[in-house]
Design goal:
mainly alpha; elongated; 4 helices
Amino acid sequence: MAGQGSSAFGGCVVTGWDLKPQGIEQVLRTTGGTASRFEVHAKAFGEHLTSAAAHAGTVSAEGGGGGGGEGGKAPQGGLVALALSQYAEHATRDLQYIAARAGRSLQGAVDATTAYLDGDQVMAARAQRRALAEPRVDLPGVGQA
């Protein structure tokens, strides 16, 4: 969105916008297509982390690692598996935030452009400010005992 004049920041009304709807539509289509693949990549990321943790093996006091557990049974996981699971929990939160931020930004661009095309610059500025607000990401089960 090309703009001139005042900005929507600090509560100012945006004036002098010079939007090219066809260009905005193309950017939103391209960005939306890229963002839609984000879920597929995030799922694959989680599957790879789970696989890595399952195959990480253990470190035992007898030396060696990654072999088997007691009595030839498969081990429950070791330090590497624990570290990977903790990393996955943190990374999942970050990935969900990025997805939420991208979605909000795209929707804000659509709302602001629509309001602008409808001739409501105050509404366009409001839509732009809402798009810049922090998204809330709730993970099921996180923080519950």
